[in-house]
């Protein structure tokens, strides 16, 4: 459910992530303070190694910060134990990973419905949601295939379907169009824009893809783990 308390969808305060490494520690994120409002559609850009993926992992509670704090809808993640943090991720956040992270023993359909199953959504509702989404993003006929029998682009579409099918309050997408052609990218982005428009789902993308950036409402550029630019933009491709 969307938090209607008036708090931001995402807030970070002086966020640092330092990885021990020889000969010197790597400062992946350095003092990042950020606020993202409910219903925003944000592209986070920057060169490889700029900290984009690490920021998404910190926001999503997949990585604990070295220093600083993160809030999701007013809930401070550092106050949660691992069990409560996992529950928050399940109920409030959809993830799209660069490596897809599909379960190899499950079919495309079963992977897409997995978070709904964990939430206890009834079977018929799960089936209806996934079938409608697969039709929308061109996965019809592939429902029974396991990930090893899918192309990289097809796996990416299944991963996106899994992230958005439950209509979470926040979707964190790490290079969601990296392995997709322009037609499929446009279809996926339109699904995300529809959720953003109809349900005020907040989207934060890490991306190098100009097709994503031209649809964004806000562009954040990272350099060396810090915000180099943060500005509102007029989407070049309007939502349908």
What does this structure look like?
The chain has 240 residues and is α/β, with parallel strands linked by helices. It contains eight helices and ten strands. It has a six-stranded mixed beta sheet, sandwiched between helices. Strands 2-1-4-5 form a four-stranded antiparallel beta sheet, covered by helices on one side. Strand 4 and strand 5 (75-76) form a beta hairpin.
Key phrases:
Rossmann fold, single chain, 240 residues, 8 helices, 10 strands, four-stranded antiparallel sheet, alpha/beta
Strand content: 25-35%
Low-confidence stretches: 1-5
Per the principal axes of the C-alpha atoms, what is the gross shape?
globular
Largest sheet: 6 strands, mixed
State the strand order across the main sheet.
Answer: 6-7-8-3-9-10
- Global Rg: 17 Å
The portion of residues assigned to helices is: 25-40%
Average pLDDT, all residues? 91
Give me the CATH superfamily: P-loop containing nucleotide triphosphate hydrolases
Q: Helix and strand string, N-terminal first?
A: EEEHEEHEHHHHEHEHEE
CATH architectural arrangement: 3-Layer(aba) Sandwich
Distance from N terminus to C terminus (CA atoms, Å) equals 24 Å
List how many beta strands DSSP finds: 10
Return the domain count. Answer: 1
CATH topology: Rossmann fold
How many alpha or pi helices?
8
Class computed from helices, strands and strand pairing: alpha/beta
CATH uppermost class: Alpha Beta
Question: SSE layout and pairings?
Answer:
Blueprint: E1 10-19, E2 26-36, E3 41-45, H1 52-59, E4 67-72, E5 75-76, H2 82-92, E6 93-96, H3 108-112, H4 114-119, H5 123-136, H6 152-164, E7 170-174, H7 182-199, E8 202-206, H8 210-213, E9 218-223, E10 226-232
Parallel strand pairs: 3-8, 3-9, 6-7, 7-8
Antiparallel strand pairs: 1-2, 1-4, 4-5, 9-10
